[in-house]
TrEMBL record:
It comes from Kushneria phosphatilytica. The lineage of its organism: Bacteria, Pseudomonadati, Pseudomonadota, Gammaproteobacteria, Oceanospirillales. Residues 101-183 form the PDZ domain. Belongs to the peptidase S41A family. Residues 402-421, 436-458 are annotated as: Disordered. GO terms for biological process: proteolysis; signal transduction. Keywords: Hydrolase, Protease, Serine protease, Signal. InterPro entries: ClpP/crotonase-like_dom_sf (IPR029045), CtpA/B_N (IPR055210), PDZ (IPR001478), PDZ_6 (IPR041489), PDZ_sf (IPR036034), Peptidase_S41A (IPR004447), Tail-specific_protease (IPR005151). This is S41 family peptidase. One of its GO terms (molecular function) is serine-type peptidase activity. Transmembrane segments: none annotated.
Length: 458
């Protein structure tokens, strides 16, 4: 495998609230590459700036200094100009001052102080992309697509993402009040949250039922693949029965590190392309393929996604879908198909610049489109009808005939309570059970000799 070392940070995230830190990218060339998409960024250079435009910029700069209501120093004007250059390109490019750059480096390790949300802009409004698991935002019930109308009473309309992040972050123990409008709601509500040290474990797991495991990844950080491998091993070791199926939950996963996504997908694939990127420069054109060693082999899988599944999480779900390794279930994902490179500058600041688009193994760009699930299941709220647990069975009737083979022929599956309250999760578990039932039937049919007949009663 050829290893490419790059000083740029390859990352997939939606706002500098949970940005990631530099990693070394490993790139190898697959045996077969899909034809380069015509939608990939063009390589030709744009026309050079005209001298008159430079003069206009200098004139604007000078007039602001001379006539603006408050005195503004040159450094502030230059920083604002750089912010404008970056923010005018796309929603994910930005100029990072020293504090923001330091926050980025902290967040990649999963440790920072705040309320624990990923934010972005939708139709010019500050929007929650996803809350991070087990954080003040998640515990307060904030949801993807919630609009943040105000922060501590200050309207967010016209507020930059950088300023929004600054207002949301703060020392642990301090409070921030958000004015939130839920998707579909007509009236906003206020939510007061206490900031906390966010040291998020990005992976959690448990058994849903005998033989069926659940793996939750909340974001992709430096140690996510390592944590996921350990969680898979624990599921195998803890299962009283052979592991018959795994649900990988990527709902409300806002993304993170490109390398983290590649390494996680590699846990489930033993060959084939995972993702490739295309940009204007040669260094932005990379491909990542799976290695022969896998953590889960051929165990049936279902991947859960929703509108909060973004960027790096879409890479994983797209790779497992295109390589026919898993069935993707849920609702359409967010649709962020671009790669940002973070470039440190000499003064401790940095640029976060969109440098490439990424493509799934089948050559799909999901930019502004999203991953479409194989099985569309919208989240619902389940309620058990009163008295529905009381049902008469044959074994309840007085004087019923006994089964000659004895009682307890099969062990009833005891599902995790979470599978019952989470409609999408419950449907994923049912699908895995169905796949196993079909597989067992096919194996039984193949073992039967041609012309064999069922046992006749005697």
């Amino acid at each position: 495998m050829r290893v490419r070392r790059t000083p740029l940070l390859l990352m997939l995230s939606l706002a500098p609230l949970t940005l990631q830190a530099p990693v070394w990218a490993e790139a190898d060339t697959p045996a077969e590459m899909p034809a380069e998409s015509s939608s990939a960024p063009a390589s030709q250079s744009a026309p050079e700036i005209d001298i008159e435009e430079v003069q206009t910029f200098a004139e604007v700069f000078e007039r602001i200094k001379r006539t603006y209501v408050d005195q503004v120093d040159d450094a502030t004007l230059l920083r604002n100009a750089m912010r404008g250059m970056l923010s005018g390109l796309d929603p994910h490019s930005a100029y990072l001052d020293q504090d923001e750059f330091e926050q980025l480096q902290e967040a990649t390790e999963g440790e920072f102080s705040g309320i624990g949300i990923q934010i972005g802009e939708e139709n010019g409004q500050l929007t929650i992309i996803a809350p991070i698991d087990d954080t003040p935002a998640a515990r307060a019930g904030l949801q993807p697509h919630d609009r943040i109308l105000a922060i501590d009473g200050t309207p967010t309309e016209g507020m930059s993402l950088e300023e929004s992040v600054d207002r949301l972050r703060g020392e642990a123990g301090t409070s921030v009040t958000l004015t939130i409008r839920h998707e579909g709601a007509t009236q906003p509500r206020e939510v007061t949250l206490e900031r906390a040290e966010i040291s998020s474990q990005s992976v959690s797991s448990r058994m849903l039922a005998p033989g069926y495991g659940y793996l939750r990844i909340s974001q992709f950080q430096t140690r996510t693949a390592e944590q996921a491998r350990s969680a898979i091993k624990a599921l195998k070791d803890d299962s009283r029965n052979p592991l018959r199926g795994v649900i990988l939950d990527l709902r409300n996963n806002p993304g993170g590190l490109l390398d983290g996504a590649v390494d996680v997908a590699d846990l489930f694939l033993d060959h084939g392309l995972i993702v490739y990127t295309r940009g204007r420069l040669p260094d932005s054109r990379m491909s990542f393929s799976a290695h022969a060693e896998t953590a889960l082999e051929s165990t049936p899988m279902v991947v859960l996604i929703n509108g909060g599944t973004a960027s790096a999480a879409e890479i994983v779900s797209g790779a497992l879908q295109d390589q026919h390794r898993a069935i993707v279930m849920g609702s359409e994902s967010f649709g962020k198909g671009s790669v940002q490179s973070v470039m440190p500058l000499n003064d401790g600041t940095g640029l976060k610049l969109t440098t490439a688009l990424y493509y799934t193994p089948a050559g799909r760009s999901i930019q502004a489109e999203g991953i479409v699930p194989d099985v569309d299941v919208r989240q619902g709220h389940l309620e058990v009808a009163q008295g529905s647990d009381w049902q008469v069975r044959e074994s309840d009737l007085s004087g019923h005939l006994q089964n000659a083979a004895g009682a307890g022929q099969g062990e009833a599956a005891q599902d995790s309570p979470a599978a019952g309250s989470d409609y999408q999760l419950g449907e994923a578990l049912n699908l895995l059970r169905g796949l196993n039932a079909i597989g067992q039937r096919d194996q039984t049919s193949s073992r039967e000799a041609p012309g064999s007949r069922a046992k006749r009663p005697e």
